Amino acid sequence: MQPWASNVRAVKFNRIEERTKTLDLLYKLHATNSDINWSEFGVFLPQYDLQLKWQDRLSKFKAKKEQIARFLGEPAVDQLIIYAEQALKSMQPVKNKKPTILHGDVVHHNFLMTEKGKVYLIDFDLAAVGHAEDEIIMWMHRVLPHVDYNLPKLLEEQPLLQGFPKEHLLAIRYPNELLREWLYVDVIATQRKAAFVEELVAFTKVALSSWPKLWYDSGSVK
To answer: Which of 45, 95, 107, 156 is the most buried (most CB within 10 A)?
Structure first.
């Protein structure tokens, strides 16, 4: 609940207009680096290293492989690990770009929409200094399940993405949402865990069936 805003709700990434508004807001946030040298705020804001973050997440996932395999099955777990490892190898670091402020958690409920359609971005507790491209990739990861993992469709739908560096689209291949959610299983209360896992297994199967095409699309965008 935000006491300064009434009659608001979390945005819905399954709606084109709401995806568009959240992406536009992120681009405006990142564009503040034209007026503010965010690198000078290193005392207050951590440096955001997406590849390092994902390497750490994969290590934690591997450490829980046996537990996760009991729910998901070992073949699917191995498949996720292979995709993650190969994606990390293909990732291209952002070079020669001025760092900016990143929100750090672009989940749908951190975007609030008013009755008049205005969108606010809240909860900057994970804010960091880094490259805008990394946060846009994180936004794409959140949105792709709502467009059936159809990357070309998403790129065509969102004009702001049409100038996105093609080499950085390779980061889409990392199954970030899946690894994060499976690591989250441990903290779910026992009474909710069975239902959560059931939904997550179904979600994972759909995602894995879509990953070969997503992998191809991320490297073939012209």
So the answer is: 45
Written as six digits, the tokens of 33 are 């680096």
3-state SS class at 84: helix
Task: Please check whether residue 126 is in contact with residue 103, taking contact to mean a CB–CB distance below 8 angstroms.
Answer: yes
* pTM check: above 0.90: yes
What is the Cα–Cα distance from 68 to 184, expressed in whole angstroms? 11
The Cα–Cα gap between 50 and 137 comes to 10
Both structure tokens of 18: 């709401």
pLDDT digits (tens, 9 = 90+) for 56-98: 999 999 999 999 999 999 999 999 999 999 999 999 888 778 9
Domains located in the chain, CATH noted? 8-220 (3.90.1200.10)
